[in-house]
Amino acid sequence: MISSKTNVDRRRIMLLGLLVPPTLFLLVFFIVPLTIMVIYSWLEPGLYGGVVWNFYDLNYGRILGWADSRYEKFDPVYLAIFFKSVRLALTTVLICLFVCYPAAFWISKMSDTKKNLFLFLVTLPFFVSLIVRLFAWVLILRPTGFLNQALMGTGLISEPLQIIFTDTAVIIGMTYVFIPFMFLPLYASIEKLDMSLLESSSDLGATRLQTFRRVILPLTLPGIIGGSIIVFIPALGNFIVPSLLGGAKVLMIGNLIEQQFLSARNWPFGSALGMIVMAAILVLLVYYVKMMTREDRLARTPSIKEVQ
Amino acid sequence: MNALKSIKIAALALTALAATNAAQAQEKLSLYNWGDYINPEVLTRFTEETGIEVSLDTYGSNEEMLAKIQAGASGYDIVFPSVHMHDIMSQLDLLAKTDIGSSPGFDNIDPQFVRASTDPNAEYCLPYAWGNVGIVYNKNKVDELSGWADLFELAKSGEKIILLDDPRETIGIGHILNGTSVNSTDEAEVVAAANVIKDNLENVSAFSYDSIPLVQSGDVAAAHWYVGANIFVQQNPDILEYIIPEEGATMYQEDMCVLKNAPNQANAKKFMEFYLKPEIAALNVEQQMNGTPNIPAQALIPSEIADNPSIYPPADVLSKLQIFEDLGQDLKLYNREWTAIKTAQ
């Protein structure tokens, strides 16, 4: 009796010990900051930064349409900036995917020593500050930079390409920054891919395209979606790349938020913009989770369709 | 007996340790300044003279500094706000009274530089340095440039230009060209000033602070930049040139202020008094190539700086320089127009 009771107690304590640290971590680093942001987004901006503790709905009104006063006016431009950011982030995701997918296959086929070397090379950029690497891109992309000199030297172009300070430069920069984030989840799912499945697929008469569509793609889909989300979220909120490579002429939602917290001294409006971005990402994640649970169900219940 | 003795010794050692710790704590000063805005030599000299160890952190804008101080960044003793930010910080009760204005060396300071309306007798802050915001250009790309109108003409002709990524500085160019005040809060005037920038937007390559290397390499013909560009002009006199535009320009001034919650107030005051010395102010100008409000210091600085009209302009040019004031709520007009400029293309 007594020993079983202490056993239960011990288990409870162990469970508590296991659960408390992550709960505290989430509380301190996620729930509390998020709550501050939600509350701030409904408060009046202080004249010199900070907030005044009055309920204020015009922060959202400026974004979504009901604010109309000298200082707080609705402007569709904020939503336009948001959609432009979504477009740039999606383009980045697609390019990262096109670069990383074949590269991950290529590396997964190598010998173990080579594999480790290449994986190390993929993560190598993290050892150098992001700002330094982006300034290097300014040197590469500017009109008298390496890229234009190389292209003009080989006679491919006669006039330097105007890349720096355009959307293209921002996309190049973001693709460069986020490639490792796409590569690692993709590699993890491709590495797991059972090659015998591909052999059986072709033995059963599938063409290469069919094998890809019906076998490889579904099996690596979790990696594709995971990598895409991990790239999309930080790309959407990025403000360093557009301010350095876009010359601050390419305005993304991250720049707008940064501007509210610094030069505009409007913390509540910055919070409101942040909440809008977060809401959009939340919708995306819910969709992802739903899709993954459906995948799991499909995988568990053998369907006749697949056998055919 | 022995045990007691060793306890005594340990206790003594502990008190001694505590004492040295306290002494060390007294011998510190921490500055929070703009990036590259003080000659490191000044800090070395101060440490040599007083034995006080100086640490330096940097920020990129007044607002960044204010946001960090408001968010509770503590441990800093001295900050270097621009005049309008000095006023704001006074109103927010963030500054400590130092009575620097009644220090013996304060006669060295030209009284016209005691500008902050909240601190008319310099009871809080010491005028630190000033300068103007003009145009730096590449002489291989354009022969001569005399003002803002020329700058936009140059851009129209197909050359690239860069403006500062700062709402008030850049909309300020529009105000100067329209003949309105850079501190205007009249909505129509602000919109008109922003429209000047919008009309030329197609020809502006970027809004950036990091334009000097691009002007130097010729990737960009000219850029809106601070008087500190003279440092680069001095290094490359055949390529670069810095001017104060003929239509007028903005000027800035930073004051040296002690924070109310400064841990080393006494050392901070010592540093302010140290900086009142003409030879120290001159030492700073030598490397910074900007203006000092310290009158006797002006006689000590190298003649190529003192005689450079883009650093120490003649009276008629000086009268065309406008300084930013705090606009309160009306800053929102500028931010609204700034977002409009950035999304106009």
Automatic annotation (TrEMBL), chain A:
Keywords tagged on the record: Cell membrane, Membrane, Transmembrane, Transmembrane helix, Transport
Native source organism of the sequence: Ahrensia marina
Family in the record: Belongs to the binding-protein-dependent transport system permease family. CysTW subfamily.
UniProt keyword Ribonucleoprotein present: no
Bilayer topology term: Multi-pass membrane protein
Protein name per UniProt: Spermidine/putrescine ABC transporter permease
Organism classification: Bacteria, Pseudomonadati, Pseudomonadota, Alphaproteobacteria, Hyphomicrobiales
TM annotation in the entry: 12-43, 77-105, 117-141, 161-188, 215-233, 269-289
A GO term from the CC aspect: plasma membrane
GO biological process, alphabetically ordered: transmembrane transport
Location of the protein in the cell: Cell membrane
Domain (ABC transmembrane type-1) ranges: 82-288
From TrEMBL, chain B:
Signal peptide extent: 1-25
Transmembrane regions: none
Annotated localization: Periplasm
Molecular functions (GO terms): polyamine binding
Predominant place of localization: periplasm
Function as written in the Swiss-Prot or TrEMBL entry: Required for the activity of the bacterial periplasmic transport system of putrescine.
PANTHER family found in the cross-reference section: SPERMIDINE/PUTRESCINE-BINDING PERIPLASMIC PROTEIN (PTHR30222), SPERMIDINE_PUTRESCINE-BINDING PERIPLASMIC PROTEIN (PTHR30222:SF17)
UniProt family annotation: Belongs to the bacterial solute-binding protein PotD/PotF family.
Record-given protein name: Putrescine-binding periplasmic protein
Protein's organism: Ahrensia marina
Taxonomic lineage of the native organism: Bacteria, Pseudomonadati, Pseudomonadota, Alphaproteobacteria, Hyphomicrobiales
